[in-house]
Design a protein that fits this description.
The chain has about 190 residues and is α/β, with parallel strands linked by helices. It has helices at about 15-25, 35-45, 50-70, 75-85, 110-115, 145-155, 170-175; strands spanning about 1-5, 100-110, 125-130, 135-140, 160-165, 175-185, 185-190. The model has no long low-confidence stretch (mean pLDDT about 85).
Length: about 190
């Protein structure tokens, strides 16, 4: 059995992509033009209204944003973001994390690989949204896509415990023996 963790608002205290966007805007104010759409997308996500058609429209907007960001992209910026935000990782709650556990998240790989660097979870056990080197969305790891991605990677390997903050992860519940809802620093087991 394997334990699977959502990342944003579960291990990380907030939305990694939103924090990263704010971080980028502070450094490069011209990116502020994307703020209204990012706020709207975050609002829809929090209300569990972010469905496939909105997600596809969103991927175009995010792709455009990332193309702009790609002009200034470098590893130093990701490292700086990580150093400023690693304190938001709630690792103390998950002292039982092991290298065999899995993180599954809608956030993009280029951010998450750095964010999990100090956690015991192996990078190959990270399932997340994927972008091409030209910033085109290849895979949105959201809603039922999380279940598809998990099954593709692990086959029928049942999840022992699944930790999440959101009902948007409901499709993962069917693969899980135990389901835990994480709110702030509290973990509550949900009935099956």
């Amino acid at each position: 059995m394997i334990n699977v963790y959502d990342f944003d608002n579960t291990i990380y205290d907030w939305e990694t992509s939103v924090d990263f966007f704010v971080f980028c805007v502070k450094k490069y104010p011209f990116l502020i033009k994307y703020a209204p759409k990012i706020i709207w997308i975050t609002f829809l996500h929090k209300l569990n209204f972010l469905k496939r058609d909105i997600l596809e429209e969103t991927s175009t907007i995010i792709g455009d944003l990332l193309k702009q960001w790609g002009k200034i992209n470098n590893n130093d910026m990701i490292n700086e973001f990580y150093n400023k935000h690693k304190k938001k990782i709630k690792a103390e709650i998950f002292s039982n994390l092991t290298s065999d556990d899995c993180i599954i998240s809608a956030s993009p790989r280029f951010i998450l690989e750095k964010m999990i660097e100090d956690l015991p979870i192996k990078k190959e056990n990270l399932i997340c949204s994927e972008f091409s080197n030209k910033w085109k969305l290849l895979f949105a790891c959201y809603w039922e896509n999380k279940t598809k991605a998990y099954t593709k990677k692990y086959g029928e390997h049942k999840i022992d415990s699944f930790y999440t903050d959101s009902k948007s992860d409901t499709p993962m519940f069917g693969l899980s023996k135990n389901i835990f809802l994480v709110k702030w620093n509290k973990i509550k087991k949900l009935p099956k």
